[in-house]
Amino acid sequence: MKPTPGVGMPVDGGLTFQHQYSPLGEYALKIYNWALMPIITVICLFVLALLIWVVVRYNHRANPVASKTSHNTTIEIVWTVLPVLILVAIAFPSIDLIAKQYKPAPKEALTIKVTGNQWFWTYGYPDNGDFEVVSMMLNVPGQPEVNPGTREVGTKPWDGPSHLEVDNRLVVPAGEPIRLQITAADVIHSFAVPSLWFKLDAVPGRINEKVLFVEKPGVYYGQCSELCGAKHGFMPIALEALPRDKYDQWVLTHPGGVIDGKDAAEAAAAPAATPAVATVPVDSPLAASTGAAE
Ligand SMILES: [Cu+2]
User: From the CA of 136, how far away is ligand 1's center (Å)?
Assistant: First the structure.
């Protein structure tokens, strides 16, 4: 699948967050835009105004005899209670967001296993026959080869930005909750996709789990976000969300890939389940973009 420019990736001169494509991301960005930023802005302007007032009105020249006041009960109550109220107001949506982020995936959700390695990602599909996909950053033309044997970025029509595009993407179904289980094989990495409000550490010997929900099909880019060694900056994440039927087709292009316990041949024998499985030419963008032609 060809990525849409500006969607799921950083843009030139971009400020603040990327546009969000998950329900949690939209909710979190709303809190940021409509609660946190306004409160921060008002407080900053208020403190700045107080500072300017003190500097102008109470400097040595304008106010030669300083006040001896050391106590004012009213002011002290106000400057204690008001910040407390502001913090409580912020706490409510914040704690709600944390609770939502910790909510486990529903029982029937698809499980995908992400493993961080020095310096690439592997994606395992235990619910679809337990095949594994190795994902390497594409080499950049004119620059030292990062992953020998991997092609250069821009040589296929569906390639996204350099330093973010990979040979085999993490393919997931769109529009359904996915249980992402994240770990690492060597050192600590961090799996992060900004436009999906997703970041979770990949720690050796430990499995971290979080729900991923991609609202619509598309390609979304991220990067390893924990300093993990020399090529930390060269292990991007390219996540391709497909409609369920296309995802099923993609699974069946892999040796050992199964949907509901059926492999490609069995699924073809039962055409109602996956009607288009035999009609995906190996060179089609669907098959190729998702690794089948690599
Ligand atoms: Cu890393």
Answer: 12
Is 187 inside any structural domain?
Answer: yes
- The model's pTM is 0.83
**CATH for 226:** 2.60.40.420
Structural domain total, the chain: 1
The answer to whether the CB of 259 falls within 8 A of the CB of 252 is yes
Give residue-wise pLDDT tens across range 156-211: 999 999 999 999 999 999 999 999 999 999 999 999 999 999 999 999 999 999 99
Mind listing the pLDDT tens digit for each residue in 141-158? 999 999 999 999 999 999
Q: What residue type is assigned to position 128 of the chain?
A: N
End-to-end CA distance of the chain: 15
Q: What is the DSSP letter of 106?
A: P
What domain range is 34 assigned to? 1-62+104-242
Distance 223 CA to ligand 1 centre (A): 8
- Give me ligand 1 centre to Cα 51, in Å: 45
170 C-alpha vs ligand 1 centroid, how far in Å? Answer: 16
pLDDT in tens, 215-240: 999 999 999 999 999 999 999 999 99
Q: Is residue 173 part of a domain?
A: yes
Q: What angle do CA 112, 114, 118 make, to 5 degrees?
A: 165
From ligand 1's centre to the CA of 161, what distance in Å? Answer: 19
Please give the full DSSP string across 117-167, using - where no structure is assigned: ETTEEEEEEGGGTSEEEEE-BPBPTTS--SSTT--BTTSSTT--STTT-BS
149 Cα: distance to centroid of ligand 1 (angstroms): 20
| 74 inside domain | no
Task: Show Cβ contacts of residue 254 under 8 Å, excluding neighbours closer than 6 positions.
Answer: 125, 129, 131, 133, 291, 292
If you measure from the C-alpha of residue 242 to the centroid of ligand 1, how many angstroms do you get, rounded to a whole number?
Answer: 26
